[in-house]
Amino acid sequence: MNTILPFQPPLVAPLFKLSNRELHFIQLACTELTYVQIADRMHVSPRTVDGYREALFERLQLKSRVGLALWAVRMGLVTP
User: Fold this and answer.
1) Residues 22/49, Cβ–Cβ less than 8 Å
2) What pLDDT score was predicted for residue 67?
3) For residue 48, what are the CA distances in angstroms to 5, 22, 35?
4) How far apart are CA 74 and CA 43, in angstroms?
């Protein structure tokens, strides 16, 4: 299981115009947490998390949470 470290905005953020909240969501989405648990950790509603997910899938041209996790590993946002 991945260790969740304190959030640090990575250098890739400006390249893809990702907000700190989106980056934090990506890091949490790469764990075994459900979207409801992610919403709880981020202190937002599950609908807000759904919005982050859909916006990121569209912007990054991804189709699934697995694709998002692979992208995050390639970009160095999380370690496998």
Assistant:
1) no
2) 95
3) 22, 11, 10
4) 27
Digit-coded pLDDT (tens) for 45-65? 999 999 999 999 999 999 999
Q: Specify whether the CB–CB gap between 49 and 29 falls below 8 A.
A: no
Question: How far apart are the C-alpha atoms of 43 and 64, rounded to whole Å?
Answer: 23
Q: Which amino acid is at 59?
A: R
- For 46-63, b/e burial (b = at least 16 CB within 10 A) is eeebeebbeebeeebebe
Segment 12-35, tens digit of pLDDT: 555 678 888 999 999 999 999 999
User: Residue 5, SS3?
Assistant: coil
